[in-house]
Every structure is written in C-alpha cells, then in structure tokens.
Structure prediction request, 199 residues.
Amino acid sequence: IAGVVHKTRKDLVDNPDLYLNEIATDSTARTLEEAIKGADVFFGLSVGGLLKPEYLKSMNRDPIVFCMANPTPEIMPSLARDTRGDVIIGTGRSDYPNQINNVMAFPYIFRAALDCQATAINQEMKIAATQAIASLARESNEFSRDYVVPRPFDKRLLYTLPPIIAKACMDTGVAQKPLDLEQYTETLKELAYNSNNVE
Prediction:
C-alpha cells in the first residue's frame, strides 16, 4: 500500500500518464491513519486488515464503511461493530449483511442498454442505477444499519432498475429504440415473478 494518492507522490510524478493522476489530491495526508480522521466514508478496495479499529474510531459519527477486499475485508464487520456501534458496514461477502456486489447493477444496466439499443453506457445510466438501488433499500421495512442495499437477488431489482436506466438512456439521447416505460416495467415484473429465481 503506497498511501494517499497525492499529486506529489513519486510514482505519480514519474508516470504522468498513470490513471491515478486523474484522482490525485492536494491533501497533506500521507497515510490512511491521517486521511481517515473526520471522514464520513471509507470505501476499501485494497487488502484485508488494513482498517485498524483506532482509524475507525477517528471517523465522523455514523461512518459508512464498505470493505471490498476478499476473502478478508479491510476490517471484519464484527470488529467494526465492537469498535463503534454507529458504524454502517458492508463487505463483498455474502455471509454478512450489506453485501456490496456488482450483480445488483451490471445485469440491469446491460438489460436496459440492450432493450433500448443504447449506443453507449454513460454516467447518467450508472447514476440512475445507483439512485434506484438506494431507493429500493429505503423502501424496504428492513431498512437499517444492516440493510442499506438490497440483497443481490432481490426480485425488485429486475423490474425497477432497467426502466429507470432506460429512461436515462432516452433522456441522454443514446437510446435508438424508445420504450414505453410503463409497459416495459410490467413485462419485467411478470418475468421476475414467473421465473425461477435464486433466493
């Protein structure tokens, strides 16, 4: 782990075409311990055990901690909850609540793109998918610290996301085949409840 992605970091200066230069910050923080103080969100895509309890303690109230390292997350959910009770934690693992899994979005983005014959997959489509996933979680009676995202095989994803994404396709001019969104939703709902899904 090379530390904070900052503009004066040697590997970035030595490699100006490196993609990390696009997101490099002017921060004076150089380590995770320094960078995480007062943070609202930690989104880990690194290595297991990286997020120490003392780092978690330095975050703001109700921190959102998504740990994607597999099979061992940056911090185990049990340790995170023992460290502070207000943490909202998700991992890439199916054996813990709040599984963050691309299966919640990608199949439906592609479904919508194919159904409206989109010429591109753009940022607006991805944002529409993200907002729809968040809405589905909030609409559930289960919405809580242990349920901030729907489960990957929630049937509602099939008939909620594609129409919203297809609308984003049409609104941004990348749809070659406009859809009747109401009819599209009903067709997908029928498919969702009349097929054999994994539970």
Notes: The chain has a mean pLDDT of 94. Residues 61 and 86 are 7 Å apart (CA to CA). The chain has eight helices and three strands.
